[in-house]
Fold each of these.
Amino acid sequence: MSENKVLFLPDDVKVKIPVGQTILQAASKAGIVLRGACGGGGACGRCRVQLKKGRLSFAGTGKLPPEESEKGWILACQAVPKGEVTVFAPESSRLSEHRVLLEGRQAGVLAATAEGVAEPAPLFRRQVVKLVAPTLADNTDDYGRLVWALEHEYGIRNVRISRQVLAELPGTLRESDWHVAVELAVVDDCLEIQGVRPAAGQVSVFGLAVDIGTTTVAVELVDLDTGEVAGTAGAYNRQAAYGDDVIARIINAVEMPGGRVKLQEAVRETINGLVTELLETRSLDRTQVRAVVCAGNTTMVHLFLGLDPTYIRLEPYVPSVNMPPPVKAAELGLEVNPEAWVYCLPGVASYVGGDITGGVRVTGMAGEKALTLFLDIGTNGEMVLGNREWLMACACSAGPAFEGSGIACGMRAIPGAIEAIRVVDGGFEVLYNTIDNRKPTGICGSGFIDLLSSLFEAGVIDRSGRFVPGLETPRVRGGEEGREFVVAWAGETGHGADITVTQADLQNLLRAKAAVFAGVRTLLASLGLEIGAVERVFIAGGFGRFINARDAITIGMLPDVPLQRYKYVGNSALKAAGLGLLSQKVWEEIKEIARRITNVELSVGNKFMEEFVSALFLPHTDIKLFPSTQKGT
Ligand code: FES
């Protein structure tokens, strides 16, 4: 037998997988995204499923405690079916209901309005021309006649045509009485004529803007004729089964047999699922999708294109390519028109990708005088500082704490996550909000920033992030891993257990916030600038949306500048992909931004490490850097 079957409950979904593949891989194939924080290494224990029927063998050393094993619980990443099996995948082991950041760009919104694309010129467009029929006095060749008309009616030069399209040209021109729509796609520095069709009876054409995030993927379907958003959809990146962060994904892609193919397949399936959903609900045919623009970090782009990501994580951190050439959709297996070109926004370095260059374009900072800081905070804190004169970027590893990983009660920003917290009455009382007002089941990144800030302000922890000795509140107690603070008591929570933050968690959070601030200071210092010089701060990304800037300043994570200088720009990667799709000019501007950005490698020299160590206090070793926290403003 070359295949095994796995039935997943309660979904009642059955899939076939090649012999030797794990339950985790089967789940991914079934569209069930199990948590795989350690990338299938058997270490995190988050991919638990329960065997209901059938037999398994175990591929690795990862195991669950005996009392759980006796009840049939197994680690999906370690279990290989022997024949047909049935497993139950509980909610707690799944990535689900994540708030994918779509920015509420509902159908009908002009995708490019806000960002000022004055003259839309999509990367795929149609131009209608009425040619003068040839005569004996004017017997110019058909192609020459078409090229002349494009130039004289639309100023379009520098076109190219394939032999296949050329072969059909004479017939089409005459059958349509010389009135045709010319399909043009931007490729490199010219326009490729992808088809010539009768002008009458044209159907609408669409493009896709895709944000390929490490955690989530968001897709916007855009009408290329009107520039309107026709629909949006988002989902978890199915690569999540191969690890939470880019490093785990690279390791899996490089070291797992067939890893690169599997990771490419996972993200392709994620995108195809979203595209199918968008097209089916609007009764559109996939051939109507004629261009795709993707924005992602450098690793995501490599894995999507099937490129070798090995050297991204190895010193001196060199990607295969920063400005990937366009690739035909058919080559990538995207379920759109096979002739559609797929464009990826250009990046700058291994850890400063197209999502960041696109974000810079969306803010407009590259064309303005004001000194601006652009921040995208996730597992990596990526940032760009500059203005119309210069642009500098860096990426610091903030760790997964703000994404809810690596912390006992941490979770992503999904319903039930505590997203805002106030510790009052000297630490006796805690007020909190959860996403969708559900009973709390954990704390997400923005909640942790609030918590750190509140515990500090309430005097529960000191400047080094340690619990102050001798506190009377019952919320501070000894736990299995030392002292801990109870954020929510078991009776209040959605899972019936206390939600706590331990001393080790606090140190993790402190390191994460210190890395972000140290990155900002290192960029500023490389130009001899102080924090006060920053005139605007743009925060991007899903996490940024929920950050309380005041609290982030209180803990010394964000620079202490007046709050009115802060602005949230949302999913700037998706917006940039949409803009690039609709405007060749914007596309060129993003390429120019990528060329202009100087990447600062933080591992070179001691500056970043010095700044990091100084930032491991609340708010900082040098209190003068955070004057507003002293004034109580
Ligand atoms: S234990 Fe299975 S993914 Fe971590």
Amino acid sequence: MPLVGIREILVEARTRRYGVLSLLAGNLEMIIGQIRAAEELRAPLILAFSQELTPQVPLELAMPCLVRAASMAHVPVATILDHGRDLDTIVRAIRLGTSSVMFDGSSLPYEENVRHTKEVVRIAHAVGVSVEAELGTVVGLAGSANSEAKGVCSLFTDPDLASDFVQRTDVDALAISFGNVHGRYQGDPSLDLCRLRAIHSRVSVPLSMHGASGLTEALYREIVASGISKVCYYTAAGIRAASDLRQMLGPAGQNDVCYHEVIARAIRFFETDTKALIKLMGCAGAA
Ligand SMILES: [Zn+2]
């Protein structure tokens, strides 16, 4: 199936009110397991590669893997450079064939965020690449098992600004802040769903939620029903994957395990885990 952009996948998700997972795809085990799950459940999927993974995993090696895997899939799969913070990296990702990029200018003053996002959109749209941008700040550290964060109200997305931002920048998806945090939540997540619904009613493009690990099943249903179309999920899956491998390996010296067996186990883990998540987002059968 040809590679698709997040725009194609998410417009339909917004109309039909289901969530599409955007999963960190940092190695082959993750990529293979996640795509198998999407194919088995006939669900669209987004494979994300974060700039934060470089330089350990070079973009030049990772992005072509994501792109190739997405094009080989039997369901629509998009690729995205997650949290691109500079034009150089974004242009490199586009040259490496990604179907979508995220520009994260959320730490910039509003007018600067608009200006930089517009520039990324101009370059990306010229070659048919979709763009996600962020307005308001999602605090916390993605993939950090040891630190916890709480949403900061003053950094939440303003619904009126969101509408202005989308009109002026022409982005394809907007990442918003409404109590969501990267990494682990401190205490129970406290999400401002009224704000989410207000943004959804004022903004014409699909909305993206970063930091979607660790919610209750009921809350996933609520965020999707309230207007989130793209659900970026990693930390909780990363912690579950490590614990699954710990079970297999046991205490040092107890089990004789060869590395390729670890690879096979990890692929199986990501396949099973992703299937459960897809069902939770209500997008099984959507592809
Ligand atoms: Zn994020």
Amino acid sequence: MSMFAGFEHIVREREPLAPFMWLRLGGHAEYLAEPTNPQELAGLVRRCRENDVSVRILGGGSNIVVRDQGVPGLVIHLGAAAFAQITIADNVISAGAGAKLGHVISTAVREGLAGLEPLVGIPGTVGGALHGNAGTDNHDVGQWTTSAEVMTLSGEIVTHQRDELRFAYRYSNIDELVILRAHFALERDDRAELIKRLQRIWIVKKSKQPPSDENMGRLFKNPIGIRAAELIEQAGLKGAKIGGAEISDHHPNFVVARAGATSDDVVRLIELVRSQVRDRLGVELETDIEIW
Ligand SMILES: Cc1cc2nc3c(=O)[nH]c(=O)nc-3n(C[C@H](O)[C@H](O)[C@H](O)COP(=O)(O)OP(=O)(O)OC[C@H]3O[C@@H](n4cnc5c(N)ncnc54)[C@H](O)[C@@H]3O)c2cc1C
């Protein structure tokens, strides 16, 4: 632990990552840090650079499978309050990367600010949402993002303005180590109407999306013009199982981790689905979920 001398209060060694994961699976992080402010974060990042230690950033854990053997290097979780602040000035809502996306959406709606509400129901944090430009068929977080503050590998804080940011389907060009904060310029709308709209969207989403109490992961990006779920269904893979990992019957682009499942089961199931869809339908699926 001498490498993290001075950071003992925020760094733990061989820390299980499963409790942070939406799938509730996976091994340990060699080191896990939960900095309480940007200064500590910058110090950790610099320390890792000096010691040639790899760093990964963990948001809500809804788009990651951690392998059973665990993750080398340092995993940084931005769970502290300092990284989750949400503020509003006029029609701009600013949110720390650790804030839950759902919390940002409900705060905006309460303030009569429209735009983000179609994204209700997407689990995870603002940082995770920006990293992969989380969204639905017609809306994504990038379309409302006017600037983003990031931290580089050397611990420097840089702000990217809108004209430097590029977003596409499940892609953003923000490639610095840490996303710290984002600013979303929204549109004024009638608050009561907006609340009703949010409720309507939420009801429809709930009927289409798997229940949030299941240990689930969304697996593949949609290839152009077709849904990954349809391909998985056409390939006859609804309900396919490896060990405790199972392709959901109702939502075939989701894996469910049943009792006793391991990350290895999930990873092998992903490979099975990918190869069978390729062999049977000639389509190469690209994973959306990251394997650490
Ligand atoms: C039930 C369910 C439904 C879902 N529905 C949708 C949907 O409708 N649309 C959609 O787009 N996605 C969906 N997802 C996928 C997932 O919720 C999104 O990708 C989400 O934005 C991930 O956020 P997170 O905070 O959980 O990120 P994590 O899973 O923690 O991390 C994902 C990636 O983002 C990086 N990251 C996280 N925070 C930061 C940061 N501060 N700085 C730099 N990098 C960071 C991580 O390093 C990792 O590379 C769904 C997932 C589930 C389980």
Amino acid sequence: MSRKPNEPKPLLAADGAALFDADGGAMLASHCTSCGRRYFPQRTVCAHCGIVAGMQRIALARTGTVHASTVIRVRSALGHEPPYAYGYVELDGLLVFTRFSGGTPESFQPGDPVELAFENLHCDGQGELLIHVFRKVVA
Ligand SMILES: [Zn+2]
């Protein structure tokens, strides 16, 4: 990503791997060239076949469907004010953990079509972060 110095830092996986490419507008996953398995967040070693040198970075589809969601009614450590919805989106056969945005928290139901978006979030102690969210697809 080519971000300006005053732009929010992108949220990363616990191991420091990029979760998304905001410039390209996609979530980033790993594809094992040996066994074909996919992983999100990205991995350097395939958990199925153990290959180290054959992991490729891939961009996932921008649209998917809600797999599961729940409404959170307490303030998050990242600074989300309640109520808000978290859950899993199915993208290209993978489940991606995400916050839902752009609708009432209770409105995200399994099977609903959603699309990737990015939002800035003020995170206590870390400043501005760029995070991924999924919004309802407007027909
Ligand atoms: Zn593999």
